[in-house]
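SEQUENCE-TO-STRUCTURE ENTRY
===========================
What this section holds: a protein sequence and its matching fold, both as plain text.
Question of interest: how does this chain fold, as expressed in C-alpha cells?
***
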Amino acid sequence: MSDLFSQSLRDVLKVSASSEPTPGGGSIAAITAGFAASMASMVCNLTIGKKKYKDVEEQVTRIRDRALALMNRAEDLVQADMAVFGRFMECYKMPASTDEEKERREHLIQEALKGATETPLDIARAAVSILELVDELAPIGSQMAISDAGVAAFLADAAVRSALLNVDINVPLIKDQSFVAKALEHKNGLLEQAAVLKDRAVATVSRRLQSS
C-alpha cells in the first residue's frame, strides 16, 4: 500500500481515477474531511492576531488546534481505509478447496467486512467533529474569510455522507445482525448530526456574507 501523502496531488488524482482498487470512496471521503479541517484552520489563522477579533482569539486558537488535530486524524483514516480494503481483498483470494478452508475464508471475510464498515464510521465521526468546530467558528471567524468556513462546512458534510455510503454497501453482506443494527444506528445518528451542524453553520455564513 503506497503512502498517498508522499505523492503529489496530481498523482493522487491520477491513481484515484485509475482502475486501482485504492484509494476508493472511503479514502477520498477522508481526504475531503482533511480539506474541510484545513479550511477551518485557515479561517482561524486569518482571525488570530487581528485586533478586531482579540476577544475571541483564545477560543479561535483552540478551534484551530483541534482542526489541525482532525486534519492529521483524517490522514490516518485515509491509510486505515486503504489497509482495511486491502485485507478484504486478500480474504477473497484465500483458498477454499476444503470445508475447513471455506469456513476459515468466510470467517475472515466477515471480519474484514466489519472492519470495512467501522472505518467509514470513524471517518464520518471525524467529519462530524469538524462540523462542530465550523459551527462554533462561523459566528466569530474573520469576516474576510467567512466564505471559507462555508467551504469547510460543505466539505465536511460531503465527507460524512460519502463515507457512510460504504456502510450501506457493506452491511447487506454482514451476517452478524447485532453488528449491522448498531452500525446502522450509528450511521443514522451521524447523518442527523451532520445535517443540523451543516445547516446551522451555512446559515451563519450566509448571514455574515450578506452583512459584509
